[in-house]
Description:
Helix content is 71%, strand content 0%. It has 21 helices and no strands.
Amino acid sequence: xxxxxxxxxxxxxxxxxxxxxxxxxxxxxxxxxxxxxxxxxxxxxxxxxxxxxxxxxxxxxxxxxxxxxxxxxxxxxxxxxxxxxxxxxxxxxxxxxxxxxxxxxxxxxxxxxxxxxxxxxxxxxxxxxxxxxxxxxxxxxxxxxxxxxxxxxxxxxxxxxxxxxxxxxxxxxxxxxxxxxxxxxxxxxxxxxxxxxxxxxxxxxxxxxxxxxxxxxxxxxxxxxxxxxxxxxxxxxxxxxxxxxxxxxxxxxxxxxxxxxxxxxxxxxxxxxxxxxxxxxxxxxxxxxxxxxxxxxxxxxxxxxxxxxxxxxxxxxxxxxxxxxxxxxxxxxxxxxxxxxxxxxxxxxxxxxxxxxxxxxxxxxx
Length: 366
C-alpha cells in the first residue's frame, strides 16, 4: 500500500503551481522596471529638420548674420527647391568660402537646372582662382549643353595658359565654336558683338575685336561697356592719348554717368596719376552711393596714397551697408593690422568666425 504524503510537504501539483506563480511575479516586476527606466531615460533627438525657411536663410546670409554659412549649408541639403532658388543660394555662397562651400558649388555645376549651373559657374569664379578654377570648370567644356560650354569658356577667358593647363585645347575649340555661333546670329545685338570682341581678344585678334566693338556701338551708342572696351583696346595698342581723349569725350556727353566717372578714375590710377584718379572715383561714388564696388576701389586708391584713415572709413562704410561683404572685411583686417589697431582686428575676426567658422582667413590664423 502506498504511503501517504508527509504532513506539510507539498505535492507535485503544488510545486508546479508555485513555480508558475513565481515566474509570473518576476515577469511583472521586470515589465514595471523596464517601463520605469524607459520613462526616466531621455528620448533620442529627432532626425534633423530644416528649422529655418529658405527666405530667412537667404536673408541671414545676405545680411552677414551669425550662423550665415551654416543655414546656407542646410538649405543645400534640400531636394525640394526650384532652379531659381538654388541659384539664389549660390549667389550668397560666394561670400562664405570654405571646403564645404566649394563642394556645394562644384556639385551644382552639374545640376539639371540651367540657372543653377550658371550661378555655380559664377560662384566658382569668386571662390577660387587660377588653376583651381580651371580644374573645376574645365570639364564643362565637354558638356553636351551648348550654353554650359559657352558659359564655362567665358569664365575661363581671363585665365593664363598655364592656369588653363590640360584644358587649353578644349577651351580654344569652344571659343571658336562660340565665335561661329555669334557671327551666325541674325539679327545680332550690341551685347553679342561685345562678347564676340572679347573672344577675338582672347585669340589676340585685335583687328577683328575692334570691328566687333565698332559694330556694338553702332547698334547701341549708349553701350558704355562696349565703349570702355574699345578705349581699353586702344590704350593697350600704345595710344594712351587717344584713349584718354575718347574717354573725356564720353564724359562730356554723359557727365552724370557713374560708370564713366569710375572708369576715368581707374584709367588714371593705372597710368600713375593717383591723385587725379581720386576725383573720378569719388565722383562715381557721389553719383552712385550704394555701389560698394566703387567704394572698395576708392578705399584701395586712398590707401595707395597713404591716406589710411580715409581708406579704412570707406571699408567700414561698406560693412555697415553690407556686413556679408567678405572682400571688404578681409581688406579692412589687413589695413588695421598695418596701422596696429589689433583690437579692431579681433572684432572683425570674431564677427567673421560667427558668420563662417570655416573661412580660410581664420584657418590661416590671420
